[in-house]
Amino acid sequence: MSTPTDSSRRDLPKIAWIGLGIMGSPMAENLIKAGYDVTGYTLEQDKLDRLAAAGGRAAGSVAEAVRDADVVITMVPASPQVEAIAYGPDGILENARSGALLIDMSSITPQTSVDLAARARDKGIRVLDAPVSGGEAGAIEAVLSIMVGGERADFDEARPVFDALGRTIVLCGPHGSGQTVKAANQLIVAVNIQACAEAVVFLEKSGVDLRAALDVLNGGLAGSTVLTRKKDNFLRRDFRPGFRIDLHHKDMGIVTDAARTVGAALPVGAVVAQLVASLRAQGDGGLDHSALLRAVERLSGAQV
Length: 304
What we know:
Elements: H1 6-10, E1 15-18, H2 24-33, E2 38-41, H3 45-53, E3 57-58, H4 62-66, E4 71-74, H5 79-86, H6 92-95, E5 101-104, H7 110-121, E6 126-129, E7 132-133, H8 135-141, E8 144-149, H9 152-163, E9 166-173, H10 177-205, H11 210-218, H12 225-236, H13 245-262, H14 267-284, H15 292-299
Parallel strand pairs: 1-2, 1-4, 2-3, 4-5, 5-6, 8-9
Antiparallel strand pairs: 7-8
Helix pairs in contact: 10-12, 10-13, 10-14, 10-15, 11-12, 13-14
């Protein structure tokens, strides 16, 4: 891959990236590959070293990272972390320049996004909520789905940045809409993983060739992106985190709370939310969400 020239970098907005975790690190690196000047900050030194090795700049604080940025992108675990980096004297709103565009790609409550946009407006900072779906693999391959809430003009301005990170990019409505759609996404993913996990245990206990069965199922109406992405996790019992149970537990809390607020019944979702919570309570919160298989195995009498 050719290296962008210094002149091409000057033509692109300067980006500050806050949060370099499982998703954030490869996403920031994809922006660097696309020619963007990226300055990053996170709490772990090894993640900052990784960013620098990829051609980015490591900052010593949120304030330092955002000070000269045209676009600030945040990718942190939940609403409290977003509020911690956004507000206060050392936060984004006090240190980013007026006119900057803040894109929060974390998965948080819709109300947190609405409140952030309102407070940022008072500082002359524009905001988009832009959570993603696709997991670590989607982040690495730059094929994420990005669901966006905010103003059309800001979305259009941010589109080249989104294009470097994902494949399906949609403005879903006003502030908070991206988070609402992400909550629905996490509901669908969790229920799908649970159904796949139950099918795996059923097939194995029935003595069927599991690999062959999953291949044929994935070629029919039962096929899904979830099964495609997680099939090897099930087959190998490989639950190294791509998206942790802890985070999906948080997301199921978001969707069940939001559904209660608008009066939507989620009977299956509520059951799966409890299964995710029970898996976390048994010490599996740090595993990939495909580890829902472990919960089904326990319920089926296996020692795991």
